[in-house]
From TrEMBL:
It comes from Agrococcus pavilionensis RW1. SUPFAM superfamilies: Phosphoglucomutase, C-terminal domain (SSF55957), Phosphoglucomutase, first 3 domains (SSF53738). Keywords: Isomerase, Magnesium, Metal-binding, Phosphoprotein. GO terms for molecular function: intramolecular phosphotransferase activity; metal ion binding. This is Phosphomannomutase. InterPro entries: A-D-PHexomutase_a/b/a-I, A-D-PHexomutase_a/b/a-I/II/III, A-D-PHexomutase_a/b/a-II, A-D-PHexomutase_a/b/a-III, A-D-PHexomutase_C, A-D-PHexomutase_C_sf, Alpha-D-phosphohexomutase_SF.
C-alpha cells in the first residue's frame, strides 16, 4: 500500500482495515519513534472509536520495537493528548478521525511540547520511513522500549480550571451535545465534579455523553448544521443559557445561543481574544499578538486592534497556525473552523478552553448569549461553500478577470479580493486533497454579501 494515500498535510486519515491497518500503524509508530528519538517516552492516546484501542496498541508496539518507551494514555480527547505532550514534554500520537464517520480513523502527531507535525516539518519523513518498514520489515532496536499507563484526565481538568476561573460566575444552565464523542468524558471532568474538582455554578444538561464511536445519534461534526438540530431544540426545551457542541475528539467547540441560534466561530474567537489580551496586558505585557486565519470575520482583527494588540493574518491550517503562534509569541489564535489556540496551552488548540472563556464572559454579564454574540457579529457572512471544479486555474482566471479594478487582490492562500472601501471581501481557496474550491464571503449588509456570493459562485461553477 502507498502511504501517500492516507498521510495528509497535517495528519493521517483513512478507512479502517482497508487503509489504516494494524500493520500500517505499527510501521508509522516505528517511524515516528525514529523521527522524535528515544530521549523522552512517547505518549499515545485514543478516542472512543471501536478500532482505536487496537490501533493505538499496534503503534505502541512499533515504537517500542525501535527502542522508545511508551506512556499509554487510554481514552482521551485530542486536546488531552496535547496536555500530555506539553506537561510531560513528550512526543505524542493521538488516534482519532475527529469528525469523520465511524469507518475512518487517523493519527495526529505532536513533538514534545505539543508542537505540531506537518508534511513540511517531519510528517513526510515519517511517511517515507514507514513505507520502507512496510516494504522491508521493522528492525528491532538493541533495547526494546517499555510501556506504562497514565490517566491524565484529572490533571487535564485541573489545568484548564487554573486558566479560566468559573467559580464566581452567575449560575448558568448549559446543554452540551458530546455527539457520543470524547466530550462525554471531558465535560463532566472540567465543568462538573467527575475529576474530583469543586462544583461550579453551572448546570450541565448532557446530550449523547455515552462514548460510542459508531455515532448512533448523529455525526460528530458540528460544522454541518444538521448535526446541531438536536442541540438547538434542547436549548429551547430546557430554557438553557446556551448550548455547546463538541466534535468527535472534542478539540473543537461550537456555541448555540439561548434562542437556538448558532454563534459564529469568529464571534467566539473575538470574545476569547479580547479576554486574553486584557489578561496579559493587565500583567504588564505590551506587545500582544493574536493570530487569525484569512477567512475569519473582519470583526476578529478589528476587536484585536481595538483592544490594543496586533492582529496577524495567516493561511488556513492547523500546523501553520501553531508555527505562527510560536514565531510571534501570540497569546491566542482563532480559526473559522472553531479551532482555538492558546499560548498558555503550549500554543495548541483546545475547544474546551474556548468554551470556558465564553462561559466566563456570559457569566459575568446579565445580557443573554444572543445579545453578547450580536456585538461580535456585525457583518453578514456566507459560511464556507464548496464547489467541485474540474479546472481550478481556469476558475481563478474567470474570477480575477471579472473583478479586475473592483477590489484589492491578495494571494496569501488561494485568492482573496477585498472592496477598496472594505464593504465586502471574499476568499476562494483550493482543497489540498480534492478537486474543490472553497468560497467564503462577507459584507457589511446581507444584500451585498448575497450579491457577491452568488456572482463568485457563478464564476466558479461556469
Amino acid at each position: 500500500m502507498a502511504l501517500s494515500e492516507i498521510v495528509k498535510a497535517y495528519d493521517v486519515r483513512g478507512l479502517v482495515d482497508g487503509q489504516l491497518t494494524e500493520e500500517v500503524v505499527r510501521a508509522l509508530g516505528a517511524a515516528f519513534a525514529d523521527e522524535v528519538g528515544t530521549d523522552a517516552p512517547i505518549a499515545i492516546g485514543h478516542d472512543m472509536r471501536p478500532s482505536s484501542p487496537a490501533l493505538a496498541a499496534a503503534a505502541a508496539d512499533g515504537a517500542m520495537a525501535r527502542g522508545a518507551d511508551v506512556v499509554s494514555l487510554g481514552l482521551c480527547s485530542t486536546d488531552g493528548s496535547y496536555f500530555a505532550s506539553g506537561s510531560l514534554d513528550a512526543p505524542a500520537m493521538m488516534f482519532t478521525a475527529s469528525h469523520n464517520p465511524a469507518a475512518y480513523n487517523g493519527i495526529k502527531f505532536s513533538r514534545a511540547g505539543a508542537r505540531g507535525v506537518s508534511l513540511d516539518t517531519g510528517l513526510a519523513a515519517i511517511r517515507d520511513r514507514a513505507q520502507h518498514y512496510l516494504d522491508h520489515g521493522i528492525p528491532e532496536a538493541s533495547r526494546r522500549g517499555s510501556r506504562s499507563e497514565r490517566d491524565i484526565l484529572a490533571d487535564y481538568a485541573a489545568h484548564l480550571r487554573s486558566l479560566v476561573d468559573l467559580s464566581r460566575i452567575r449560575p448558568l444552565k448549559v446543554v452540551v451535545d458530546a455527539a457520543n464523542g470524547m466530550g462525554g468524558l471531558t465535560v463532566p471532568a472540567v465543568l462538573g465534579d467527575a475529576a474530583g474538582l469543586g462544583a461550579l455554578p453551572i448546570e450541565v444538561v448532557p446530550m449523547y455523553f455515552e462514548l460510542d464511536g459508531t455515532f448512533p445519534n448523529h455525526e460528530a461534526n458540528p460544522l454541518d448544521p444538521k448535526n446541531l438540530v438536536d442541540l438547538q431544540a434542547a436549548v429551547l426545551e430546557h430554557g438553557a443559557d446556551l448550548g455547546l457542541a463538541f466534535d468527535g475528539d472534542a478539540d473543537r467547540c461550537f456555541v448555540i445561543d439561548e434562542r437556538g441560534g448558532a454563534v459564529s466561530p469568529s464571534a467566539v474567537a473575538a470574545i476569547v481574544a479580547e479576554r486574553e489580551i486584557a489578561r496579559v496586558r493587565a500583567e504588564g505585557e505590551e506587545d500582544v499578538v493574536v493570530i487569525h486565519n484569512l477567512i475569519t470575520s473582519r470583526v476578529v482583527p478589528e476587536v484585536v486592534a481595538a483592544a490594543g494588540a496586533t492582529p496577524v493574518r495567516t493561511r488556513v491550517g492547523h500546523s501553520l497556525i501553531k508555527d505562527r503562534m510560536a514565531e510571534t509569541g501570540a497569546v491566542f489564535g482563532g480559526e473559522h473552523s472553531a479551532h482555538y489556540y492558546f499560548r498558555d496551552f503550549w500554543s495548541a488548540d483546545n475547544g474546551m478552553l474556548a468554551a470556558m472563556h465564553v462561559l466566563a464572559t456570559l457569566g459575568a454579564h446579565a445580557e443573554p448569549m444572543s445579545e453578547l454574540a450580536a456585538r461580535y457579529s456585525p457583518y453578514a457572512a456566507s459560511g464556507e461553500i464548496n464547489s467541485t471544479v474540474a479546472d481550478v486555474p481556469a476558475a481563478y482566471t474567470r474570477i480575477v478577470e471579472a473583478f479586475a479594478g473592483r477590489g484589492d487582490v491578495d494571494e496569501l492562500d488561494g485568492l482573496t479580493i477585498t472592496a477598496p472601501d472594505g464593504a465586502w471581501w471574499f476568499s476562494v481557496r483550493p482543497s489540498n486533497t480534492e478537486p474543490l474550491l472553497r468560497l467564503n464571503a462577507e459584507a457589511e449588509t446581507e444584500a451585498d454579501m448575497v450579491a457577491i456570493r452568488d456572482e463568485v459562485l457563478a464564476l466558479i461553477r461556469a
